[in-house]
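1st attempt posting a full record on here, be nice pls
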Amino acid sequence: MTKVITENFRVENTNELFTSFKNLNPTLGANFSTLLANYGVSASLSLTDANKDAIRAFVDTQLSTLRPEGNYYIMASTVDPVTVISNTQKEKREFQRRVIFGNKVSDVDVRYMFSINDWVSGTVYDAFDDTQDISTSNTIVTVKDGQGNYFVYKCLDNNVNAASTAPPVYSDIDLTSYESITNDDGYVWKYLFKVTDAEVNIYKTSASLPLPYPAYGDLNVIAAAKESVSKIKIESAQSGQFSEFLFGAATSLVDGSDVTFVSEVFTDSSNRYKDVIVRRSSTLTLSAAEDAYKGMYLKSPSGKLYDVIGSTKESNSDLKLRIETTDSILPDSGATACQLVVKIKVSQPDLGGTECLAYGILDTIGTLNKIAFTDRGSKYKFATAEVVYPESISSPGVSNLRVIVSPKGGHGFDLVTEMAMSKLAVLTDFNGESTTIPDSNYYTKVGLVKNPTFSTTTFPASFDNRTVITFTGHNDKATSYPAGSFVTQFISTVDVRDIKNGDNCVITGLGNTSIAGAVYPTEEMTATDWIALGWTANDSGDSSTVPILGSRFTAGSGVSTWQSSNPNKRGTVSQAILALTGAPKEETVVAKIHESIVEGSNTKVKLVDYRGGFESKLHFGPIQIKSTLTSFNVGADIINTNDVIDYGSYEEFSGDLLHFMDFDPIERTVTRKEKIKFIFDF
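the predicted structure (as tokens):
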């Protein structure tokens, strides 16, 4: 049993990832709202604004459920270099714990990628064949011009496996039809698209180029694309079968079918046919049999094919041909060069399509050598072809022809599938001029994270995840916080600022307590203060008095208001989320100093690399400064209540880390921009 995973499977996987960067849900929801509003004014349905809002909300929910939006970020992490990373849970968690900053990426930052294959003289390129695997065939070539642009072409005919000696040239393209280019070396090329130097400079790798976006190719080529006959391949042909049909001199692979137009001698009054005289140039003896050349094509100087429905020998060199037309076959006065060629009959296209018109080319001994076209037709998904033999060939041998049709939609229509693109590039710039990207210190890892969460309600375009301590009114502390050192803080109890609405807690200390590790400084709390905080007695105590030690309380909605308006008013309490009478929480918070700067009258200390529990945060009170985690304190300070602590918006460990890598430390500066590019190959 043979199993084949087609290129479509690889392409589909690539496309699914690409599409996930687009965030289609908002667009779909907005479009639905517009349609709904239009529908609501129709006679058949009357909807209030409330109705529309409710339906829109329902649709948005269903969209998010059925196809969750994909929000992707390229994040920088870790100051310390790591020699080797591994695909382990620990490594991935460490990356997300130590995230420093990042940029959001969307579909505009993503490109399908394809291989560079520079045209080289003397190479035998593979002609497109619908029986071959396009992903492994040497069919697509790239040609770079003097301005840094790349032009991409597809080989449709390789002149019977001959070496290519002339590159395809964009200026040879018919810019109205975007049909194929026939070179002097006999190769036929289909122009597909151009990659501009601007795209090249941004996305090019040593081996790959980007597909133009959002056009996914050349819009003119896409519009002109047709499902047509790409090639008719001669699988077998009888040698010298048409030796008596070499009317003119032949050289190499050019057929000897040339005849000279002499005159028009008769036009049927019913406008069905006309008789013309043509003259052979070779020493070939013309057949005297009536209608000997019936069934051939007369090819005019303009390239149009006319059916020969009868023939008569006029002399040793002249033939009278009856052709099925009343057209003038010589549109240009003085043009006399015609051809009498072998007719190739191609099956009919699908409904509404145009017929493929093809003819045979003979070699120097009269063997059917290749098939040429005046029209490749349209709306062909399948086709057959056969040789139409002239009347003088009474016992023709077998010529086996195989028709090769274009890809779905035509050459150049769906390049992602047509070129089996299974590679994506995801790009972002870390720019020191950005207000959210740090402009100092180092980073040593980057990764792609899908669907992270942030403390903000929206997904930021970029973010600085460093915690910032602003020492208000102190512009003299920067030197006390050298980059690379550590800030530590021991916490034995948790103040009310840490209590979430609805948390059950036990009062362990009130007022100016001096218990070990109490958050400093504290201020005596009155009953009025507790009530203002939204606290209520659960099973003991009186709301009109100060709560007694050991009383159990539930935090109310007033906590957040109190945090912002009265930061000095607090009591030291112990969180007991898992047990109503749980023990006090004790831990040491550790963070690494990333940068210390002076802004006006303030000093800002920016921290990374938290160590401790997931929800560990710095508090007002004493802190220690260490050169290493194992060293003694080299300094001490206090975060006062008038100082400000701002935390990064990225929620640690959130999102799925899809890809990450490490490297030697990269230094950030205000004038530097790093281009981060991930290549995913399926």
